[in-house]
Design a protein that fits this description.
Layout (H helix, E strand, L loop, with lengths): L3 H17 L21 H15 L6 E6 L7 E8 L2 E11 L14 H4 L8 H10 L5 E9 L7 H11 L4 E2 L3 E5 L10 E9 L9
Parallel strand pairs: 3-4
Antiparallel strand pairs: 1-2, 2-3, 4-7, 5-7, 6-7
Helix pairs in contact: 1-2
Length: 206
């Protein structure tokens, strides 16, 4: 089974390789963004990276996207590696992209990482979802995104860890970098991942 540090390093390599082919995202209104992996949606980026990982290493060839969680409800897990009978990894992935294709700030992006409200489907509430799920195998939260001068990911990642450790048993941080990307705004970034173990922590009342 692929360990989490190797998965993070391979994810960064696959993102960089995908970007080198200059993929071009298109908005919901049909407007083409500038070439590069940066403007693609979270879901599309994950699909492109998963496909590239298969080309880089056959160990990634068994995977599924949007896997239903066991039990009632419509919740789905972003990315599962291995066999459905016993996944090697069940991974929830979130993108942190603080600027848009035009170089203007995405003011609501931190909600996707730090919001404590389930309706926002953040990386923070993904921790709870994984920890309480009956999905077989090991579980992890992965955050990938882009760094900008004066707007690096560090503060958001530290805040996420502080909040997540109050809710679940959060493992060690694993990180890999990518740079020299082709988009003029989204030129460099990092991928982070943590294993989630145990059940959610019961928070005391205020």
């Amino acid at each position: 089974m692929i360990n989490l540090p190797q998965l993070v390093a391979d994810f960064a390599t696959a993102l960089r390789e995908t970007d080198a082919r200059r993929p071009q995202a298109v908005s919901s209104t049909g407007r083409a963004y500038q070439p590069g992996i940066g403007p693609h949606t979270e879901r599309h980026t994950l699909r492109l990276v998963a496909e590239e990982l298969v080309a880089l290493d056959p160990a990634y060839q068994e995977y599924s996207l949007d896997v239903p969680y066991p039990g009632p409800g419509r919740q789905r897990c972003d990315w599962c590696l291995g066999s459905p009978s016993a996944w090697d990894w069940a991974i929830e992935a979130k993108m942190l992209r603080l600027f848009g294709d035009n170089g203007k700030p995405n003011d609501n992006m931190l909600t996707r990482v730090l919001s404590p409200y389930p309706a926002h489907r953040s990386a923070l509430t993904d921790c709870d979802k994984l920890a309480s799920s009956a999905l077989p195998g090991r579980k992890a939260v992965l955050i990938f995104g882009y760094d900008y001068d004066g707007w690096e990911m560090d503060l958001a990642i530290v805040a996420f860890e502080a909040l997540a450790r109050r809710r679940v048993d959060l493992g060690d941080r694993h990180m890999a970098t990518y740079d020299r990307l082709v988009h003029p705004v989204h030129q460099r970034g990092r991928v982070f991942a943590w294993e989630i173990a145990g059940r959610p922590i019961e928070l005391p009342p205020l």
